[in-house]
């Protein structure tokens, strides 16, 4: 049986490129003091030989693995999924690797165990996507020798956190409806255990109160279109029984809830936006192709991922010990919002 050839070593690259192994090391570590033509010769030799950096050897020398851990929910929902993807892409752009642990973020002990698991792997730092209070609490109570960044709202004197400003997003959505002339606005809120759902509800209430208007809030059990549809059916039924009034506008806490609500309104032969305006939140895939296209709030999750990695690197290098970074969302006005209907019109 033929012996399997050994993988190329740094000395093989040095020989092929006609340089010292120290020069190859400087190229691998992106050291600035390498001439351009020399760098190109080394990179060409690495490609021809199929050389791969030995991460284990590098970790022994530098005491850094170049690997960061991420604790996330593994949810199929747009926000958590895009946050996870954005963090991984931002890390890879910096030449870093990500080790992922998915857990139920509503259970603090699971989050704590995931953090310990990643620490056992020797990661250089950890990002916890803390969409629930229990996840944030696990970070605050953990004692680690590496930096831990919370992707989400967190409170604590020495906390490293990067979050979308959810209250600001809700405020700009609500203000858009008020600027159109709406005064009777219903907020279909996300599930209360979620930090972002509560923050959006706060932004909605504060904006309505500042305008001297009474806020109407209906809390959903989850973020699905099905729950949005059921909420819409219940709203229509209550209006028909004269137990409620039909709002002129609805601000849903995510695009899927908005989609379900729009379906229920269509079933009741109500037109969006001429009878009821609808605003979503997320700018999820397909929201521009709802019927009608959905006015929504874009969360800038790519920016969130980039800021998380930047903060983690700064903390690893000792230039950040505590920081709270807010990423501003933006409103995307499409065709699901319009001025309120004529009050004289009789509906349902």
Question: Can you offer a commentary on this structure?
Answer:
This protein has 348 residues and is of the alpha/beta class. It folds into 3 domains: 10-53, 434 Repressor (Amino-terminal Domain) (Orthogonal Bundle), CATH 1.10.260; 64-164 and 300-328, Rossmann fold (3-Layer(aba) Sandwich), CATH 3.40.50; 166-298, Response regulator (Rossmann fold). The protein is 43% helix and 15% strand. The chain has helices at 10-17, 21-28, 36-49, 55-62, 78-93, 108-120, 133-141, 166-179, 195-210, 225-240, 255-267, 301-316, and strands spanning 67-72, 97-102, 125-129, 148-151, 160-164, 185-189, 216-219, 249-252, 277-279, 296-298, 323-327, 330-332. The protein is elongated. The relative contact order is 0.11. The model has no long low-confidence stretch (mean pLDDT 89).
Keywords:
348 residues, alpha/beta, 434 Repressor (Amino-terminal Domain), Rossmann fold, six-stranded parallel β-sheet, 12 helices, 15% strand
What does this entry show, briefly?
The chain has 348 residues and is of the alpha/beta class. The chain has twelve helices and twelve strands.
Rg on CA atoms, Å: 26 Å
Unreliable segments of 5+ consecutive residues: none
> Could you give the count of β-strands?
12
Biggest sheet: strands, sense, closure?
A: 6 strands, parallel
Element layout with pairings:
Elements (H helix, E strand, L loop, with lengths): L9 H8 L3 H8 L7 H14 L5 H8 L4 E6 L5 H16 L3 E6 L5 H13 L4 E5 L3 H9 L6 E4 L8 E5 L1 H14 L5 E5 L5 H16 L5 E4 L5 H16 L8 E4 L2 H13 L9 E3 L16 E3 L2 H16 L6 E5 L2 E3 L16
Parallel strand pairs: 1-2, 1-3, 3-4, 4-5, 5-11, 6-7, 6-8, 8-9
Antiparallel strand pairs: 10-12
Helix pairs in contact: 1-2, 1-3, 5-12, 6-7, 8-9, 10-11
């Amino acid at each position: 049986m033929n012996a399997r050839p050994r993988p190329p070593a740094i000395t093989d690259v040095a020989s092929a490129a006609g340089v010292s192994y120290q020069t190859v090391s400087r190229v691998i570590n992106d050291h600035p003091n390498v001439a351009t033509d020399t760098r190109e010769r080394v990179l060409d030799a690495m490609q021809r030989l199929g050389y791969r950096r030995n991460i284990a050897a590098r970790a022994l020398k530098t005491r850094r693995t170049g690997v960061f851990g991420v604790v996330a929910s593994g949810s199929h929902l747009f926000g958590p999924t895009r946050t996870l993807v954005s963090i991984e892409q931002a890390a890879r752009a910096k030449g870093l690797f990500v080790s992922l642990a998915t857990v139920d973020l509503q259970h603090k002990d699971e989050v704590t165990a995931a953090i310990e698991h990643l620490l056992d792997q020797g990661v250089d730092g950890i990002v916890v996507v803390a969409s629930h209070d229990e996840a944030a609490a696990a970070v605050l109570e953990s004692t680690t020798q590496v930096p831990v960044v919370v992707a989400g709202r967190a409170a604590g004197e020495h906390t490293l956190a990067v979050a979308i400003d959810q209250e600001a997003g809700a405020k700009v959505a609500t203000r858009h409806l008020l600027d159109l002339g709406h005064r009777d606005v219903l907020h279909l809120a996300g599930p209360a255990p979620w930090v972002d759902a509560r923050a959006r509800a706060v932004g909605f209430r504060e904006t309505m109160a500042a305008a001297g208007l009474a806020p109407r809030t209906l809390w959903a059990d989850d973020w699905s279109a099905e729950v949005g549809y059921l909420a819409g059916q219940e709203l229509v039924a209550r209006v028909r029984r004269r137990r409620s009034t039909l709002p002129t506008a609805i601000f849903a806490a995510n695009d899927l809830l908005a989609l379900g609500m729009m379906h229920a309104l269509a079933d009741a032969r109500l037109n969006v936006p001429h009878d009821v305006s609808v605003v979503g939140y997320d700018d999820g895939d397909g929201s521009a192709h709802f019927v009608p296209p959905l006015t929504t709030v874009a969360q800038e999750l790519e920016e969130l991922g980039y800021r998380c990695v930047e903060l983690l690197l700064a903390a690893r290098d000792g230039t950040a010990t505590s920081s709270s970074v807010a990423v501003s969302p933006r409103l995307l006005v499409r065709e699901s919002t319009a001025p309120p209907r004529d009050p004289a019109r009789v509906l349902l």
